[in-house]
Amino acid sequence: MKFNSLLRHLLSNFYPFKFFYQKLNNQFVRDVFVAQELKKIKKNSLILDAGCGSQRYKGNCSHLRYKSQDFGEYATDLKKSIDTSYQDLDAYAYGSQIDYIGNIWDIKAKDNTFDAVLCTEVLEHIPYPIDTIKELSRILKKNGILILTAPSNCLRHMDPYFFYTGFTDRFYEKILGENNFSIKKMEPVGDYYSWMSVEVARTAISNSILAKLILFPTFLYYAMKRKTPVSVNSLCMGYHIVAIKN
Q1: N or C: fewer beta carbons within 10 Å in the chain?
Q2: Beta strands across the sheet bearing 46-50
Q3: Domain that holds residue 157
Q4: ∠27-85-78 over CA atoms, to 5°?
Q5: Are the CB atoms for 9 and 205 separated by under 8 Å?
Q6: For position 100, which CATH number holds?
Q7: How high is the mean pLDDT in each 10-residue block of the chain (246 residues)?
Q8: CA 46 to CA 65: how far, in whole Å?
Q9: What is the number of structural domains in the chain?
Q10: What confidence score (pLDDT) does residue 241 get?
């Protein structure tokens, strides 16, 4: 464990290791995407952080009127997964007041309340993702902005609140369209090759030093592969979406 901790520190702090670390961790690109889109929202707009968890992006909403929603019941994983701690996931904590406590598919807010809704990495943790999108449409004003991210392929996490491994671009096109949204932007995150590099790295980090040495050339092979339209269409890690309520 001490070696793995040292390896993670090396990966996350020293270039060129840092380059590969950030390449492995979707959180970096997600943070940039969310921060940029939040900055574009008009000052003093009313925004709901739906499924806010630890309220990671509250600090990016200082120019907005920020409200939060979560069910507030997750504590720790019941079914464990292969080590994912190198991803530096936020601690899931409720250090701040939650404005709307309850199910995301049944938010106690009036129709057409919010100018914007932020929903990041939530859909895989709820049993009714389609009902949730319908609910987010209900509480948004006309021309309201939905900033949405979710995986298209992921391992078990936050069990027992883990219901889907991900959603495709076709899911968003159909379900957002059926619920009065127009997609303004939909960006795939990663591709087949980057996914393979992540999984090889995950396997190496969670195993012996010998495994790390054996798998390192395979990791480099996938990490250095160039992204293509076919590799993205085959498999990506998730989608970043901006949609407007019609």
Answers
A1: N
A2: 100-101, 65-70, 46-50, 114-120, 140-151, 238-245, 181-189
A3: 2-245
A4: 110
A5: no
A6: 3.40.50.150
A7: 51 55 79 96 98 94 97 86 54 66 96 98 97 98 98 92 97 98 97 94 88 93 94 97 98
A8: 5
A9: 1
A10: 98
